[in-house]
Amino acid sequence: MGLLGISLAFGLSVVVFAYAIGGISGCHINPAVTIGVLAAGRISARDAIVYIAAQVIGAILGAFVLKTILTGQTNGFNAGEWAFGSNGWGKGYQNEFNMMSAFITEAVLTAVFLFVILATTSKVGNGTMAGLAIGLTLVLIHMVAIPITGTSVNPARSLGPAIFAGGEAISQLWLFLVAPIVGGVIGSVLWRVTYSENKVAA
């Protein structure tokens, strides 16, 4: 599909589900987003725990389905390192960016993502267009980050594939758990500062 195709697939999936399940759960499908929203004071700790548990379970099940499909090739399937869309960095992974580049990329882009989410869904944001704005932001994030880390900005999205890929993917997983969460909190702080008089959710 190429860089643009993959980026669009991720972003448009979020657009679709923002409108499909946004009214039920706010389309919380990312622990970094949930933690960022928690830091912004727009969700309770109890709800955040439930959401994160569901996200992790969903990610593992999704990766399992992907693994099952791929290993069903009649001519055989060699998973190799960083299989099933795992995130990574360093020697042997795509353009071989170092750990610092990977961490900064994931943290900064997650911060941007959270800022857009919180801003567009705030009481002064355009709620009817929020799903589209959030999805298109994710498209742009993927276009930047795919060549560097494969794009996480979502700890659950990284956890699922890493569990089944093992090896380097699992040893490097910590970065894709920590950096997006750090970025999510930073994005939340930026939103609170920028929208200091608009802290109440729409």
UniProtKB/TrEMBL annotation:
InterPro entries: Aquaporin-like, Aquaporin_transptr, MIP, MIP_CS. SUPFAM superfamilies: Aquaporin-like (SSF81338). It is a multi-pass membrane protein. It is found in: Cell membrane. The keyword Phosphoprotein does not apply. It comes from Sphingobacterium kyonggiense. Keywords: Cell membrane, Membrane, Transmembrane, Transmembrane helix, Transport. Pfam families: MIP. Belongs to the MIP/aquaporin (TC 1.A.8) family. NCBIfam families: MIP. The chain crosses the membrane at residues 6-27, 48-70, 99-118, 130-149, 169-191. This is MIP family channel protein. Gene3D superfamilies: Glycerol uptake facilitator protein (1.20.1080.10).
